[in-house]
Amino acid sequence: MKRSLLFLLLLIPFLFALFELFILENVKDPIKYIYTISGISSTVILFFTILISLIKKHFNILKYRRMIGLYGFFYALIHFLNFTVLDAELNIDFIFKETLDKPFIYLGMGAFLILIFMAITSTNRLFKIYQPYHKLIYLSLILITIHFIMAQKSLTIMQLFYIAIIILIGYLKLLQQIIRKNRVH
Q1: Cα–Cα distances in Å, from 149 out to 3, 38, 47, 67, 104?
Q2: How many CB atoms lie within 10 A of CB 151?
Q3: Which of 152, 157, 167, 172 has its CB surrounded by the most CB atoms within 10 Å?
Q4: Structural domain range at position 74
Q5: Which residues of the chain are under the pLDDT cut of 70?
Q6: How far is residue 157's CA from residue 140's CA, in Å, rounded to a whole number?
Q7: How many domains does the chain have?
């Protein structure tokens, strides 16, 4: 029951986007809209995956972390496909030129490559081998945050609030790691 409910909850941004794009048809710039909804959904879900260990005393959903992380990857994949298929129209020259000319794009590509590695190695068998490398999620989230900030023409109060939450989560995770290390020694 919990898994099904979580599955549906994580699908809400996707279903909402489909509803807005194809039923209501009230989106003026579909490519920008898909960038926004997929980028924010991916970022929020991926940050939530690292937050799970901080809240496990109150909500023990640790066994769903892989599924949640794969949803974060799903939205990142939509974000990437929006760039390559809809925006760049599969023009490889354009994709390489944009990636090299705009730093926020190569930061996003770097983060996406890390997420691909993590998604591929998230099976039980491969995770046992590559678990230490899954700490790369922190690097990916830093790259995603910088990608997000650089992609904005100007920052609104809401975006600044969003960045403050990202910094707070990062601080709490760092504090958790320091406390854990001090207990071991």
Answers
A1: 33, 15, 16, 27, 8
A2: 15
A3: 172
A4: 2-184
A5: 1, 185
A6: 24
A7: 1
